[in-house]
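Issue 218. Parser rejects a valid record. Input:
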Amino acid sequence: MTLPKDPAQRPRGEGAPEKRPDRGAELMVAWQQGDDQAFHELVDAYSGQVFALLTRFLGRRHPRREDLVQETFLRLVRARDRYTPSARFSTWLYTIVWRLCINETERSRSRRELSIDGAGEDGQVVELPDSVELDPFDGVARADVIKEVRAAIAALPDNQRIAMVLARYHSLSFAEIADVVGSSDKAIKSLIHRARETLRARLQPLFEREAI
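Output the parser choked on:
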């Protein structure tokens, strides 16, 4: 079985699109220089992405997602003077979100409240990573199938889950994901490989049953 290539790892050599200006970094620097409107533009531009990442990692039923969006930008305020545009702004911002996610899951686990709900609470099938080849069964909407898919994704170790989410939904490269979680390119590649294999092994029997 040939697996599709991860879109986050496309070559960036000759023929690749010209790198676009990093609007987030530009706004952050402008804010550092006293432009308060730039901060409001940052919130408008990135709060949706932060909320989406929190939702995909913690689940749609998690009660503190909006609070954590606010906490993300509070931490950004505290880090204002320390910020340097050495990486893509969104990568730096996702590092803050990742730390909050870890704190939140540890708190939830200590209270036995961690939800196994994944993205897709609106009733649609959860979108799986490209490497889990389930094309013959796209569109399956049975509640028990959706529940097992969500459980499989949520059962991944935290570092594997965040790596998968950042690569699949936020189009980060291995190097950028490594920056977010404080690891190396090689380690991230290994994490994503293990996550894909785990999902494949757990979900394949389910979809084989669906084919009967």
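Fixed in the parser; the record now loads. Residues 22-115 form a domain with the Rna Polymerase Sigma Factor; Chain: A fold (CATH 1.10.1740.10).
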